[in-house]
Each structure stands twice: as C-alpha cells, then as structure tokens.
C-alpha cells in the first residue's frame, strides 16, 4: 500500500500545500488503478492455468481409464493363455501316458513275435534234423553218423560256437561235418552270414563242412547266390514226406 501522507509532506516542500495535495491524490489514484489492473490480469492468467491443468488432468484420467481397460484385457488374455497352457500340459501328459502304454504294448508284441519266430524257427530246425539224413543220402550219397543235433561246437578250451544243425557224416570214405541253419524267409544277407559261420568253423575242424540251409521261402536270386557258393537249400515242403 502507498503512503500518500509521506508523499504529500515531501511534495509540499517544493510545490506548496495545494499542488502537493493534488499530486498526492493523483499518485494515490494511479496506484489503486495499477493495483487493480495487475490483480485482475494475474487472476485471469491463474484461471487460464487452472483451466489448462483441469483439461490436462481430464485427459490424463481418460488415458488412465483406457490403460486400465487395456490392462484388464491383457489380464483376461493372460488368464485365457494360462488356462490353455494348463489344458495343453494335461493333454501332453495324457499323450505321454498313451505313448508309454503303446511303447510297452509294442515291446510286448515284439517279444511275442520274437518268441513266435523262435518257435517257428525251432520247428523248422527240428523237421530238418529229422529229415536231412534221408535227404542227404538220397541226393548226395552222404551217410550221417548217428543223429544231427542243435548245440555248441568247441572252438577252443572254454570257447563255444552255437550251431543250429550240426553232425558228422561220410561220403565215399571222406569224413564230413554237416552244418545247417533254418530261416523262415531266407535272404541274401542270411546266406552271407552263414558263409562266415562256415568259414569260422572250417578253421577249427579237420572235416570238410557240407553247408545246408532250410527255409519256407526265398527268391530265385538268393537260391542262385547260395548255389554259386556251394550251399544246398532245402524247402520246408521237401522235409515233410520224410517225417515219421
């Protein structure tokens, strides 16, 4: 607030009472007008600032509302994803359980088929053991000494070699060893493996090995390959007439 009395006292020293009084009044009026003008501008500016702040707050709240909605949508989507993942995990567990069951059943089936294959193979070997002495005498003039058998041949002390059909024979005074195998379906690789067995056993016996293979069926190419290697093939149907 302006001190008009002090201004008046200062002015009257040089202007006189009347002039000093008028000048003091003018200064007082100017001060009041200036005070009112500044206060109004400041208030208008403050109102504008407050309005801007209010608008900014409104926009912020709108963005926050939209953000809250988005967060809620994301939360729901996450919940659905978690639920789906849980379903997938349960489905994976069921699949793994079924797979383990199938593997177990497949293993049992293979074991059963293996047992069946062995049974069929042993049956074919048995028929060959019964029939070969007659067939070899009829076809090659070979006399089997005693009986053919399934067993092991000693390679060296404590080392044995498993054989499917084995025995001794003679032809025109020459001692022979009969080595045979039975295969339900003879393949070329079976013939090749059999030749390796013949070679291995020939190295430990002084008798010449007469090799024989018995099968239910094989291809002409396999028969040709075996014949070229000096192996006699008998089919299962050739064994039956000689059985007792």
Describe the structure.
- Residues 112-118 have low confidence and may be disordered.
- The protein has 244 residues and is α/β, with parallel strands linked by helices.
- β2 and β3 form a beta hairpin.
- 67% of the residues lie in helices and 22% in strands.
- α1 crosses α2.
- It has a domain at 121-242: Trna Endonuclease, Chain: A, domain 1, CATH 3.40.1350.
- It is rod-shaped, with a radius of gyration of 58 Å.
- It has a five-stranded mixed β-sheet, with helices on both faces.
- The protein has helices at 4-15, 17-140, 188-202, 220-228, 236-239; strands spanning 143-156, 159-171, 174-185, 208-217, 232-235.
- It contains five helices and five strands.
- It starts with a helix and ends in a 5-residue tail after the last helix.
Helix and strand arrangement:
Elements: H1 4-15, H2 17-140, E1 143-156, E2 159-171, E3 174-185, H3 188-202, E4 208-217, H4 220-228, E5 232-235, H5 236-239
Parallel strand pairs: 3-4, 4-5
Antiparallel strand pairs: 1-2, 2-3
Helix pairs in contact: 1-2
């Amino acid at each position: 607030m302006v001190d008009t009395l002090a201004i008046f006292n200062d002015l009257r020293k040089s202007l006189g009472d009347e002039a000093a009084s008028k000048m003091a009044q003018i200064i007082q009026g100017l001060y009041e007008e200036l005070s009112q003008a500044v206060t109004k501008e400041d208030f208008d500016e403050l109102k504008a600032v407050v309005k801007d702040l209010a608008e900014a707050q409104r926009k912020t709240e709108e963005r926050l509302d939209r953000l809250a909605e988005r967060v809620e949508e994301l939360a729901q989507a996450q919940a659905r994803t978690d639920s789906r993942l849980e379903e997938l995990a349960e489905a994976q567990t069921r699949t793994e359980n079924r797979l383990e069951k199938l593997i177990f059943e497949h293993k049992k089936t293979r074991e059963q088929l293996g047992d069946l294959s062995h049974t069929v193979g042993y049956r074919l070997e048995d028929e060959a053991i019964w029939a070969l002495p007659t067939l070899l005498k009829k076809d090659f003039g070979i006399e089997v000494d005693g009986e053919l058998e399934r067993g092991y041949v000693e390679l060296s002390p404590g080392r044995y070699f498993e054989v499917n059909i084995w025995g001794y024979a003679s032809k025109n005074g020459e001692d022979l060893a009969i080595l045979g195998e039975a295969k339900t379906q003879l393949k070329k690789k079976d013939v090749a493996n059999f030749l390796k067995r013949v070679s291995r056993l020939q190295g430990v016996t002084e008798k010449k090995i007469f090799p024989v293979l018995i099968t239910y069926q094989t291809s002409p190419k396999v028969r040709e390959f075996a014949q070229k290697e000096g192996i006699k093939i008998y089919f299962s149907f050739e064994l039956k007439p000689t059985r007792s």
